[in-house]
Amino acid sequence: MLAATVCAKELTIKLTFMRIIPNRGVVGSSPCSSKKIIIKPLAALIVLLFLQLCALAQLKEAAAENQATKYVLVIHGGAGTILKKNMTPAKEKAYTDALKQALQAGYAKIKAGNSSLDAVEAAIHVLEDNPLFNAGKGAVFTHDGRNEMDAAIMDGKNLAAGSVAGVTTIRNPISAARAVMEKSEHVMMAGPGAEKFAKQAGLTIVDPKYFYTEERWKGLQQALKEDSIKSKLDHSSNQSQQKLGTINTDYKFGTVGAVALDNNGNLAAGTSTGGMTNKKYGRIGDAPIIGAGTYANNNTVAISCTGWGEFYIRNVVAHDLSALMAYAGLSVEEAGKSVIKKVGDMGGDGGLIALDKNGNMAMPFNSEGMYRGTITKEGKIEIRIYKD
Q1: CA-to-CA distance for 52 and 239, rounded, in angstroms?
Q2: Residue 273 bears catalytic tag
Q3: Which helix (H) or strand (E) holds 149?
Q4: How far apart are CA 208 and CA 327, in angstroms?
Q5: 217 with 141: CB under 8 angstroms?
Q6: Is 347 exposed, middle or buried (0-12, 13-18, 19+ CB in 10 A)?
Q7: Do 318 and 222 meet the contact criterion of CB atoms below 8 Å apart?
Q8: Which residues contact 99 (CB under 8 A, 6 or more apart)?
Q9: DSSP output for 174-233
Q10: Strands 188-190 and 160-167
Q11: 316 part of a folded domain
Q12: CA triplet 311, 307, 169: central angle to 5 degrees?
């Protein structure tokens, strides 16, 4: 039987197993001395009842707290130089409304008992169809004035994965990535081959002109102008030693992603992007590379990354986060901070979203801001844009 022994010296209350002795009461040992203490049966019952009531109250409080903070869907709309001083109230509202719509679309799938893959795909569809984000309709332009998109999706239940890279005619690249995973023997397809497969899989194919937006076109023209100036300055003395590729890295950011946990405890992750403004030579970033920009494993966590892709590839960021949880015993928050620090130490920047198997989430980033949002099991939505 449990009874309370009070140690005034330590100012703590400890529980010890005690026994009732007929006609004497309850006998136990005090943690403060070797002397035995005797509590009358009635007093012992009162103490026991009090302790049981306290324990029940604490369990209910802990259960309520855990239930309230169990996340089922986390999304991002890209990281980068996102400053409140540069954001109009109308544009900020447009971003928050879009993120909310994406969360609601994914959450509806989970509430209906659909899979985490369905939730991820539904949430990303909303972001791909919105020109505010660098994915799908809002994809940025390459150096040659094209929109080349990448996407990936992964099922944490069986580690199945699919991705597409450098596609120009698929309206929703995230659905093409899922088709690769579910309808082919492959994991990654690229370019015209991926587009041909997507058409055969029954996905929506559009004219490349569908992806044109005036804001993204102006962004390319500005990048071309600034790169031309920077190129002349940088190449004036050491032209032969310069590396080829995107010169002005201020235009590197832009990705959308989602991670979800369904009612069956299955995790899924998805990422979709238009890549870098003014990218050259068929450049592909981390988003479609499983383990770099996208990863999901039911044993640990689901991750979607956003930022300067080359650094995420070199650090294998998404898988590294999962490995830190699996092998080092780190929490999702600790592992998230660790991998973003590695990216920063190497000279890269960006962020990620992660959701573990227990519904705990992390959204670390080292840039000025990251469009991000969460929704709990009960449907509570939270959206953020800037640094806290």
Answers
A1: 77
A2: no
A3: strand 149-155
A4: 45
A5: yes
A6: exposed
A7: no
A8: 75, 77, 371, 372, 373, 383
A9: HHHHHHHHHHSS-SEEEHHHHHHHHHHTT--B--GGGG--HHHHHHHHHHHHHHHHHHHH
A10: parallel
A11: yes
A12: 110
pLDDT tens for 250-281 read 454 679 999 999 999 999 999 999 999 999 99
Q: Are residues 15 and 157 in the same domain?
A: no
Annotated catalytic residue: which of 142, 246, 255, 300? 255
Furthest C-alpha separation in the chain: 100
Count how many domains the chain has: 2
Domain that holds residue 28: 2-66
Mapped onto helix, strand or coil, the DSSP state of residue 387 is coil
CATH number (domain holding residue 353): 3.60.20.30
Residue 54 token pair? 């306290």
pLDDT for 178-237, tens place per residue? 999 999 999 999 999 999 999 999 999 999 999 999 999 999 999 999 877 765 544 344
For residue 240, give both structure tokens: 């032969």
Q: Identify whether the C-beta of residue 52 lies closer than 8 Å to the C-beta of residue 15.
A: no
Residue 39 three-state SS: strand
Same domain, 159 and 283: yes
Burial of 17 per CB tally in 10 Å (0-12, 13-18, 19+): exposed
Q: How many CA atoms lie within 13 A of 336 on its CB side?
A: 24
Identity of residue 127: L
pTM > 0.85: no
The reply to whether 45 and 77 lie within a common domain is no
Dihedrals φ, ψ of 330, to 5°?
-75, 155
